[in-house]
Design goal:
Lipocalin; about 20% helix; alpha+beta; single chain; elongated; ten-stranded antiparallel β-barrel; five-stranded mixed beta sheet
């Protein structure tokens, strides 16, 4: 009889030895089609007995657990009698997605990792996910010497000590994950700020601006002051081609930018007549930039071709009807800097500065007007960008531009002039 019992035990021993540990897979937040959860199950089902998201979700409902975190994980693991619980979320960042997974095992510190991907069907994503799971689960075995299932039976003082150990453990885990990433050949992608790290930015909107031209002049008949106010349409764009996939590497910082602004319906009264004449007021720039990302913020610098004009239509005026106002057509190469600071995950504060190095000022500096001039100019803009959707933002800003001219000849006793533009702008942005 004893021999028979020993024989049965010997036959059953291999089955006990190869019994699979239980892994509970909680619903992945943001995984709407369930593809990520399906891939995780497929990656671990050979080595673990997997309790799927539906069963885990039902158990969470019974335990009144809204979401899995460090406070609720032990209760859920004990109820399911699972050695390991896997939980996480999927965030969408433009066209890309970011998967964050946490692996919590009995007696082990919680491990956490992230993967950026475009599609759950991509082979590269499947391979990376399987590799990370296998690497992290390799040592996640039950440790009865450090079993925490009796957590509820510990006194409150012990709870506080355990919480302290958890906090310290979290710090150690983060340090270890960084060490793991150093050993990994894959480049670690930086977390994107939806506004400041956009690879493509296209905006369109309106501007309300006032332009003034004043003179430093002596004599009895100085030129009249010029002042106009009007609304304008504006479009601008910024592109960093290599930054769609990653913010790492020198190529990710190379970019291009341009803007165009045209004032509509602006005219000026002709002194001594009842007439007014239209004004063609326009500005644009186009150039290259290099962007440096630091934390959630960024700084871009470069140079652009910079053009501004303020030209009166004199075609309807007769020879006796004079408009004592010089036209301007400013052409310059402008070094540019744009600083974007993260005020919140969905808000950015930005400042831009251009220092135009003038190549030509147009008719204002010819012999019929005030002659050759030396010029000092700057163009400033600052405001806020507010995210209103995953790929959309609103920009509210103020702009101030000044071109200061010092004339070498004193035509009409004019020694200098200041051409200023002040305005406010509101645009709608599309970000990727």
């Amino acid at each position: 009889m004893i021999r028979r019992l020993l024989l049965v035990a010997w036959l059953l021993l291999p089955a006990w030895a190869i019994a699979k540990p239980t892994l509970a897979l909680a619903p992945i937040e943001g995984d709407k089609d369930g593809k990520v959860a399906e891939l995780i199950e497929g990656a671990v089902d050979e080595d673990f007995k997997v309790l799927g998201p539906k069963k885990v979700e039902a158990t969470m409902g019974k335990l009144d657990i809204g979401e899995v975190d460090r406070k609720t994980i032990k209760k859920l693991r004990k109820k399911l009698d699972a050695e390991i619980v896997v939980y996480g979320k999927v965030d969408k960042e433009g066209k890309k997605k970011n998967l964050t997974l946490s692996i919590s095992a009995r007696g082990k510190r919680t491990q956490k990792f992230e993967i950026d991907y475009k599609s759950a069907d991509a082979k590269s994503f499947k391979k990376e996910l399987r590799g990370e799971l296998n690497r992290r689960l390799a040592g996640a075995e039950r440790d009865d010497s450090n079993n925490d299932d009796d957590e509820d039976e510990k006194p409150k003082r012990e709870d506080k000590r355990e919480a302290k150990r958890d906090d310290d453990g979290d710090k150690v885990r983060k340090r270890r994950d960084r060490d793991d990433d150093d050993d990994d050949d894959r480049p670690r992608k930086k977390k994107r700020h939806a506004i400041n790290h956009a690879a493509l930015r296209i905006s369109a909107g309106g501007v309300a601006a006032r332009r003034t031209l004043t003179y430093d002049a002596g004599g009895m008949a100085p030129p009249p002051r010029v002042g106009t106010f009007g609304g304008a349409g504006r479009i601008d764009a910024e592109l960093y081609p290599a930054a769609f996939d990653s913010l790492k590497g020198p190529a990710a910082g190379i970019g291009f930018a341009g803007e165009f602004e045209k004032t509509l319906g602006v005219s000026i009264d002709v002194p001594g007549t009842a007439k007014s004449t239209p004004i063609n007021q326009m500005r644009y720039s186009v150039g290259a930039r290099y962007r440096v990302v630091f934390g959630p913020s960024s700084f871009a610098f470069g140079a652009s071709y910079w053009y501004r004009q303020f030209v009166a239509d004199r075609s309807s005026l007769s020879g006796l009807e004079g408009l004592d106002m010089p036209d301007v057509k400013y052409k310059a190469i402008a070094p540019t800097g744009v600083l974007r600071l993260a005020a919140a995950p969905n808000v950015a504060i930005y400042f831009s500065a251009e220092i135009p190095l003038l190549l030509d000022a147009g008719p204002i500096q010819n012999g019929q007007n005030y002659g050759p001039a030396s010029v000092i100019a700057f163009d400033l803009e600052g405001g806020a960008e507010i995210l209103v959707g995953s790929n959309y933002a609103v920009r509210l800003a103020a702009q101030f531009e000044q071109i200061g001219l010092s004339f070498s000849k004193m035509n009409r006793d004019v020694s200098g002039a200041k051409d200023r533009l002040m305005g406010v702008t509101a645009t709608f942005e599309v970000l990727y």
